[in-house]
Here is the input.
Amino acid sequence: MIPRFTHVLQLMKNVERNLFHMFGYHPPKELALAYVHEKKPVAIPKKFSLKDIVGDGFLLAVPKFRRTIEKKLKRKFGTPEYVWKMLVPKNDIKVCQTCGHHHEKRRLCENCYTKIKKETEEIQGQIKEKLGINPIEHDVVVLYKGETLPDQPKEFWKGKRIIEMKKERPQWFSKNLLEKTTQQPSKSTDVKPTDLA
Amino acid sequence: MNQADVSKLVSKLRVKVLPRHRNLPGPKGPEGRIDKLRKTVTGLIKFERIELNYNRADEARQYAERLISEAIRHGDCHKPTMDTADFWLLEKELVHKLFKVLVPRYESTNLSYTRLYNAPRPQYGRSLDKVVLELRGNPYPDLLNNKSNNRLLIQNVLLDAAKNEYRQTKIAEMAKNIGKVGATQNTDSKINEAHEKPNIS
Amino acid sequence: MALAIRWSSSEVFGAAKWFIRRDCRALSTIPERAEEQTVSPKRERQATSRVRISARNPNLGLRHAYPEFLPDPNPKWRNSLREKLERSDMLKRRNQIDIPEFYVGSILAVTIADPHAQGKTNRFVGICIERKGCGLRAEFTLRNVVDHQGVEVRYDLYDPTVQSIQVLRLEKRLDDKLLYLRDALPEYSTFSFDMDPEVLPEGTPVPVNPVQVKLKPRPWLERWERQELKGVANIEEHLKEKDRVRRELRATPWEKYDLMKQYRNTIPIEDQNDIWAEVNHQLRQLQLTRKTTARKRTFTTPKSQLG
Here is the structure.
């Protein structure tokens, strides 16, 4: 009820004001604001050019903040515990007693190992071929070309799986180093020069 | 604090055992770990020498040692041990090998049943460390060819020759001193020294 | 009542003596028995390996009756000197009071010194539902239902306030831990405080009680359905289909074959042999003295009864 009443009141007020305005009852001229009209200068659009920014030289991306000394050192040298970028001498290199190649301490010699690995794989292949799918019940004896079973009582060899390799025993794979090697003594007659040093 | 499990008896392993097992990461979790180890143990018993990553090799080594020690302790007439062997060896002909070949081979040994060598690693590689895992007493060529005690090693031959030479010079010196008429106490002691030296070397 | 107790204790000691004579073979679990049966004569003949010889030590049977003498299998907590000192302290305590042989599932009566109780002592009777800890920290938990209220008391085995431990019924149950009695019907863990000690005739092995308890409806304290319990009868009727599916998902059947997990939970035979060689003599001596004192007591009882 009350909002409707105030609305009607407002409407009456508006009508009254408009009527006065129509018949020339204005507020006094002294209260009007003073206003001076001025013409705006017309801005001439300038063409964009890169030269304004670059000037004489090139503009590159530059670091915004200083990099701390710790970060700089870490980037340069790394951390000894994780990634150490300095060149450090390796003190754990040994000479192989068998072949004379260098290898890391507590690791196998690469030269010997590749040789042994190849031979091992060959023997493994032979064993697999010989065995087929029968159950494995006996140990393996590897015999190379031209070799016979070592002298043991016959019962010892009974049932053992004898794997025969179709080549001669490699010189380095010898069970007894006092045995004669399979390498033939050289027959070359070249005389080596002496008293060189 | 835990109490030790007394329902089972196990024999002590001759290899180092870490306080906790290693996880072998994979999508299948613990079951996948055991599956991987089963494959490795089967391969080890089958080929007797395999090359693989260190972590897996070290874990599989412990399981293989346990399997062999159980087989030695209980023999092939013990049902639980047979079940365990059946679980761990995926190829069933290897169960025969375990009880008929490996048990007699290791029955009286005092050493571990397996050996672990570090394989050479490539100089500029970032691959994981490889190792060679093998059963002792395999038919393959020996990986460690340690000949330092061999008399025919060139260093030993040279050392022997040097010793011999030293001995010869000392004996010659002694002979000279004996020939002299006025041998003093001092030279006597020298002779004694010379006598002792060869014995030591 | 007193007469009965004394007589029974002597019987218990007699039984203990019998076990010792039989190298505690009777105490061993089922697989070991099977092992003994299955060993063929051929294998026996060629049993020359160190592994088998060390496993034949008769002292190893002591591990069932005295599990707390074995150290913690976790190498993190191992310390050989501390373990040795603890063992000597345990033997000293065993010289002071009689700590009988008991297992999870046995019914015990424990008297402790209690300054606030009438007569300064407190006696509690209950079924042993758990044994854990090793060394001087060995402990066991007794459970009973008093006035319709479940009561559990945890005692330290080597606590100096413990005045006496008496075994009222020596038996084992089907499981290693009886924690499921908390969710079982109360009659399964109700024992009267004036229960008479039961006597095992000399020469019988520790009987295994095959009773299967009935669980109350859910909620439970633990997911008993996933623990493969043998001593629970009606677990399936409380389960929904969802629980069965989850049980299948969570099952770990490979753990039975995890050889290294077993190894890490046990003390190897070679280590055990050293420990039992150290304490074996004193334990046997204790058993002998206990037996003689028990005999004396039985001899003097009639006098005290008449007086």
